[in-house]
Amino acid sequence: MSQNRASMLDRPVAQTFFRYGLPWSAAFLLLSSAGLVDTIFIGRYVGAQALAAVNIVSPVFSIFFGMGVMLSVGGTVRSAHHVGRGDLRAASAVFGRTMLLILLAGLVLALLSLLFRPLLLTLLPQVLTLVFRFIAELPENLVMASRATIFRMRKTRKPVPVGNRFTYTLGRALNALARLLNRTILHRHPMRTDFEYVLDASFREVSSGIRSMSVSISFGLLLLCIGLYVTCLYLLQ
Q1: By the 8 A CB rule, do 91 and 98 touch?
Q2: Measured between alpha carbons, how far is 161 from 233 in angstroms, rounded to an integer?
Q3: pLDDT tens digits for 112-151?
Q4: Largest CA distance in the chain
């Protein structure tokens, strides 16, 4: 025990990892392949009903196996902690309690499965059917939900008759205000201006001026960069 403990604590981490990790990986690989081999032999030599029965019971086996793995991994971590501290008595105690707990959990689960076997055989196929149907329909449901929320088709807006939407909306508001003023204050000298067309023309003129200004600024910046480049070349000579 002391020699194994010394080799575990004193050897390089990578060597220790592969020394203990590879056997465990091989064990899990053999365990998984055992289920595959059982499925092949049962389906080939026994029949489809026996294969369906094995597949129905496999989740129960997975629960048993998961409980054992959970308890064994937790006990191994605690035991390894005590081994690292040099307290072999505490490590042995943790190992013994873990094995006892795994045995008791297995017995309790086995008794429950025997007592409620008719109920499990009745409900388990229905539950598995619902679960597999949910998994099979999950991609389609996700696509439908995304199309109804994120990728929802937006209603196309009708194009405005004059200008863009901003100038058209503002022009209509100003036209309504002008009609109200023409009926009250300006009834003797009514306002004949159509603000929709006026705002559209003003917006086009301002946009054209901004484009011309941006072209002039870009050309000026280009000339400035060329001048700075020529100045740097002159100073570096």
Answers
A1: no
A2: 56
A3: 878 877 777 777 777 777 777 788 788 888 888 777 777 6
A4: 114
Concatenating the DSSP letter of every residue in the chain gives -HHHHHHHHHS-HHHHHHHHHHHHHHHHHHHHHHHHHHHHHHHHHT-HHHHHHHHHHHHHHHHHHHHHHHHHHHHHHHHHHHHHHT-HHHHHHHHHHHHHHHHHHHHHHHHHHHHTHHHHHHHHHHHHHHHHHHHHHHHHHHHHHHHHTTTPPPPPPPPPSSS-HHHHHHHHHHHHHHHHHHHTTTSSS-----HHHHHHHHHHHHHHHHHHHHHHHHHHHHHHHHHHHHHHHHHH-
Chain centroid to CA 107: 39
CB contact set of 23 (below 8 Å; sequence gap of 6+): none
What are the tokens at 224? 């400035």
- Contacts (Cβ under 8 Å, ≥6 apart) of 78: 94, 98
CB 197 within 8 A of CB 162: yes
Angle between helix 48-85 and 2-10 (nearest 10): 90
**Is 98:69 a contact under the CB 8 Å cutoff?**
no
Note the residue count of the chain.
237
pTM of the full predicted structure? 0.43
